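Problem: given the chain below (75 residues), write out its structure.
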Amino acid sequence: MQTITDTAGLGRLIRTERRAQKLTQVQLAGLTGVGVRFLRELEAGKPSCQIGLALEVAAALGIAVCVRMRRERSS
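Solution.
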């Protein structure tokens, strides 16, 4: 499991997985119904990308997003 702490990290993860699956941005855009521009910006780590669309793209690539509360961390 990877820990993502910012939009740049999420973008890198999505780009890495897209490439591992040998998909172009155009192909992934077609599969998910988002625009190529959105994918470019998401992969570049643009902070203002819509979280809902980002989660849809992640899910399409088989990336599960888990949230852990700071108080749940074991010391």
